[in-house]
Amino acid sequence: MAALVVAEHDNASIKSATLSTVAAAAACGGEVHVLVAGSGAHEAARAAARIAGVARVLHADGPGLADGLAENVADQVLAAAGGYSHILFPANAGGKSVAPRVAARLDVSQISDIVRVESDDTFERPIYAGNALATVRSGDPVKVITVRSTGFDPAAPAGGDAPIEPVPAVPGRDRSRVAGREASRSDRPELTAAKIVVSGGRGLGSADRFQDIIAPLADKLGAAIGASRAAVDAGYVPHDLQVGQTGKVVAPQLYIATGISGAIQHLAGMKDSKVIVAINKDGEAPIFGVADYGLEADLFEAVPELVARL
Amino acid sequence: MKVLVAVKRVVDYNVKVRVKADGSGVDIANAKMSMNPFDEIAVEEAVRLKEKGIATEVVAVSCGVAACQETLRTAIAMGADRGILVETGEDLQPLAVAKLLKALADREQPRLMLLGKQAIDDDANQTGQMLAALADLPQATFAGRIELEGDEAVVTREVDSGVETVVLSLPAVVTVDLRLNEPRFVTLPNVMKARKKAIETVTPDSLGVQVGSRLHTIRVSEPRPRAAAARVPDVATLVDKLRNEAKVL
């Protein structure tokens, strides 16, 4: 029995969600191998080999894998899948796009977004925006799984020394191609990996005020910025800052929610944070129900004062 | 160009579901049911393509119990031309739904298939990608914008680090995200008209699809609760607590 983790990487480095996925794979009980499928991804493969607990790295390198197209990555995973009892992906945009293609072609069910491994065939996953936890058992010969990174303590990124085995890259398909990318540029930590997240909601009132109020606090704390769906829909910040059921799931050491009422869909994305602070002028807001420290106050006064006192 | 849209009947997004005391599932008896919000966005996009003269026919498909007819009628009231119900009382996993949709796609030959990126009940986010794999078609998930140009779909995807534009050769499968559009409200006259439209009913058997699954839910439980909130009177106290009690600063 061995598990294959499909690494998320940018060819130069391994993304942190991969480390949590390795931890989940180790909990399944067998050897853990990591597949790095990319183009010019030698640095990423070396980084994968250093992850503690990884026994082998498979490195497929070819032009068809340069853009991480789901069609091609799925073909590569299937080419490597023989002999593995578990195939695990980080539950983010890349893994969510590829894993179901792999599961369907293997004719097995996929188990999405697991937060706990109970045994090699039994897993826990949130349903209904985290309002319930389902424990599911798979009788499929191969378990295709996506892993919610907040559910697992990441494996150590150093300490391992796994051999890197080159494997042939699959030819790319010609019916889809990436025509462009626009990365949101930020000097702040990545939202899903940050130790502190400062989030704003519709209570901020405008894109300018969101920046004026939230950015100084995030700067002071070295924090990532997040937002509620309402703030994203209103155009205050881009979609990739959305925290919630359909956005990103975060579990930082400290989560500061300002002007966020706390809809179920938002709570689904942050309620596993270690310490939650809510600042809201509506004392009845549901966000106070999950906050460790609630401050009922006008955020336009409280947040600048907080910045001044830190 | 024919567009096929898949719609799922789910517990309305405003309903807070409760876990059954015996841990066998969530209690959805008597709960208000609605079309999965992401599927509504998919229907809206398909109808807009028709209004622009790009799509010639919009076919809505739902898989499940007889009551899914209501979901199909909502899609028709929004502007879909017809509905197909794949009726079954079996518990359907995403893989089974993908197989059913694949069988219908073989029959209907749509150029574009639109689905919501995930359903808000099982939060699986699988069906569209599985359908694309089974039909051996290109896919784009998390669509925030869809442009059809000749034999290609240019799709802007909302990914973790920003946006990515992919070009797909049609036929293709696209799963839609929140900000693609704002679905229209259905008007009463359109609801009445939709009631009169015939909905074709087929079964998994008639499509030659086995819907059984080897994935079983053995327990459903309440999420672990968080301790009740402590209110702090002012910012100074908050900073003090974060430094000295929670020790996170």
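Chain A has eight helices and 16 strands.
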